[in-house]
Amino acid sequence: MSYLLPALSAVIERRLLINYRLDASVAAEMLPEGLRPQLVDGSAVAGVCLIRLGDMRVPWMPRALGWRAENAAHRIAVEWDDDEGRRRQGVYIPVRHSASWLPVAIGGRLFPGVHRHARFTGSETANRIRVDLAAPDLRVSADVAVVSEWRSRLFATVDDASAFFRAGSTGWSPRRGSAELDGLTLETEQWKVEPGRLLNVESSFFDALPVGSARLDSVLVMRDVPIAWSQPHRALRQAQGAEIAQVG
Hints:
Elements: E1 8-22, H1 24-29, E2 36-37, E3 39-40, E4 43-57, E5 67-81, E6 87-98, H2 101-106, E7 116-117, E8 119-124, E9 128-135, E10 138-146, H3 158-167, E11 170-174, E12 180-187, E13 194-203, H4 204-207, E14 214-222, E15 225-230, E16 236-237
């Protein structure tokens, strides 16, 4: 299966990048062949992205018809070697959720990425963001304060964290009924993040991992960032011994 993905633009109205320090051996067991955990000071970097997209549309579509919805993606930072031996980085997304039925209906069929439906609730002010996700297979609750100071054991500064996640802007996820992985790359010329403080975070995805293997680390906040989506030139195969595609 291949997708003819048109040019898509959107606005990140709000994005929480909630990060965990994950035991490298646990992370490796969760990845398909060809991908390996990207380590920071010996730990894998995993997390959940809680993102509200607005004005998602193709260029010719009127703004009034743009798609808007809450979405979530559990992620593991990964790296691989392309066919010229260069190290590439991105994220592996084993599970995606959306409040909109559109990506649930066409994801993995007409559009990259299989999505499951979820109900999102929450509230937001300039200095505090709360998001709750409820789905048959997943529960997430996040309460985050937007602050000026940065706290993290993975990244010394907020600029270090920002650079790490910006470089890993291609996400790979399982393709429906195939050994290949679907890829989507987020592109923007206006990347900007703010530090956050984790007041309370729960994720049944991480709670199900071996005790003590996933430790909350930090959170980045993105707001009002225009973006575009594109596809990597080739798909990534999960099969052992298969060639890993170049991204970008």
